[in-house]
Amino acid sequence: MNRKEGVKCVSPIEHIDDNTVLTKLLTFGPSIYLDKRDALQNLIIQHGFWEKAVTDVFLSLVKPGMTVLDIGANCGYYSLLAAMYVGPHGKVHAFEPSPLHHDNLMKSIAKNGFNQIELHKVALTNIDGETTLYISRLGGASIYNPGLPGTIEAKVKTVVFTEYFPKQKVDIIKIDIDGSEPLIMDGLFQLIDSNDNIQIIMEYCPFIWRGSGYQPLPILQRFAERGFNFHIIRHDGTLVPATIEQLETYSEPAHLDLKIGRSM
């Protein structure tokens, strides 16, 4: 695909069983097994993509041979696309604790022959142990109970990011862990400090952060002290520069999608 064309849709759907379909991402992309009971995955089934603007920005960053971390991989949407772009000489680490996604994600990896994807069935946090993961059929999962009807609870393994994933070459990190981002910041900055050109796509949820006892300002300042700039990814695909002050005072419940990187 010409990177300037952006994402497109949609390919034929094969019904595997009552709950599972096999389709392709975008018009050019990898095969993916999806669960029809999941609202987010239903959108991918219907349109062939998810978060069009974020997808375009993400894919514009990924190059052959890169190492990509997909923290909060969900059904594997970004992991599979990244694997296609990094190619056989690159690497994708997919972190997804929800057991509801593991079977289909493993099947998707095998279907595409993506040996460059390694699935880590753990939740990255700041403690080793076990926690309850609250899984919503709306498409998200969080260690914080959203109180939504139909939420499923599962015990999952937690690991300390800094210990589980020691310093190594990383080019791109995508983070979407439904408000748990502050728990991985020490590990994230350890990777940042050993990778000068690292680029980050992150779901920014200060409303949830504050509700969990974490203030966004110290985290934003840690990025700025290292020379990082912030851009908000708008729904139309434009990148809008944002200051620490603008992000720190953002108080809406809805999250922002951020591109965080140093000036090249």
Automatic annotation (TrEMBL):
Pfam families xrefs: Methyltransf_21
Gene3D superfamilies: Vaccinia Virus protein VP39
The organism's place on the tree of life at top rank: Bacteria
Ranges where the Methyltransferase FkbM domain occurs: 70-229
Transmembrane feature ranges: none
Protein name as it appears in the record: Methyltransferase FkbM domain-containing protein
